[in-house]
Design a protein that fits this description.
Layout lengths: L3 E12 L2 E9 L4 E3 L2 E3 L6 H13 L2 E14 L5 E12 L4 H4 L14 E6 H7 L3 H15 L6 E7 L20 H16 L4 E4 L3 H14 L3 E3 L5 H6 L1 H13 L5 E5 L4 H11 L2 H4 L14 E7 L2 E8 L7
Parallel strand pairs: 1-6, 8-11, 9-10, 9-11
Antiparallel strand pairs: 1-2, 1-4, 2-3, 2-7, 5-6, 8-12, 12-13
Helix pairs in contact: 5-6, 8-9
Amino acid sequence: MGSVHAAGAVVWRKKAGEFQVLLVRRDSYKDWSFPKGKYKPGEGPRMAAVREVYEETGEYIALQRPLPSIGYTLSSGKKKRVFYWVARPLTPRSRPVAARPEFPKAHPGEITRSRWMNAETALEKLSYKDERAMLKRVLKYWERGELTTRAVLLVRHARAQKRSAWNGSEKTRPLTPHGAARARTISAVLSVYGVDRLVSSPWQRCTATIAPYAQASGVSLTCVAALTEHSHAKNPGGVRKTIEGVLTDSGAPAAVSLHRPTLSTVIDVVKKHGGHHVREKLPEEDPYLKTGEILVVHMKDKHAVDVERFRPVHTEL
C-alpha cells in the first residue's frame, strides 16, 4: 500500500504589532487547519506548499525555515505525511512571484474560507493537536525574535559537458541538455524561497544554472570573479569573503551559483555561523553537493538557524 505526501505552510504576518497566522476552513470536514495539500505529479514538496497556499487562500508566499512533518494514517489505511515550512506573504507584483507558473484557485467546495487570526484565536480554532503543537513552536520563534529569517541558497551548478569533451575555454564550458533542464527546475525553487538577489561565478556553467530565474523574475545577476575555480585555487579567501558577505547581509533572500572545488570553503563559512544542530546537517565529504543540488541556509541576523539540502525534482516547473 503506497503512502501519500502533502505539503503546507504556517503563513504569518505582523499587523499592528500583533502576530497573526493564516488558517483555512473546510465546512465539509468541519475543521480549521493550516493550508496544505497533496503534491501534483512531478511536483516537489516546496512548490506543492506554495501552490496549495495560493489555491486555498489566494496568498503568494515565500518559504522560510522548515518545520517538523506530521504523519498519520488515513481511513483507507494509507500512511500520509505532510511537510511544513514557516512562510511569509509576498505581494502579487514581487519579482519571485513573476517567476512562478499561474496557479488555479481551489474548487469552492474544497475550502470554505481563509482567515488571518491572532495566536490565541488560532490555537482555539485549530482542529488538530499536531497543528496546535506546530503553532506553539512557531510562537516560540516569535517570542525569541527568531521568526524573521532569510534564506541563502548555495547552488552547485547543474551538469556541464565533460572537460575531456570540450575543446573551448573552461570559462565557456556549457551545461548539457540535462543540466539546462535542471536549471529550469532550480528557477522554481529560487522562486518559492523569495530569492531577490543572485550571485554567481562568471563562468558559463554557473551563470546558466540561475539564468532562467534571472530572466523570469527580472532579478539582476551579479558575477564575482573570486568565485571561479581558478581564483579559488589561488586565493580561497576570496570565496570565503564573498560567502560571508552574502550570509550576513541584512537584505533579501539570495542564491549563489558555485563550482564543486569551492564547496569545502563555502561549507566552512556556513559552519562558523551555525550551532551543533546546523553543523551536523552539513555535508562533510567531497563532492559535498551533487550537480544541481542546493544547500539552503536559513539566517537570523548573523546566525544560521537551520539548513536544508536537496536536489530539486527534475520536472518541477
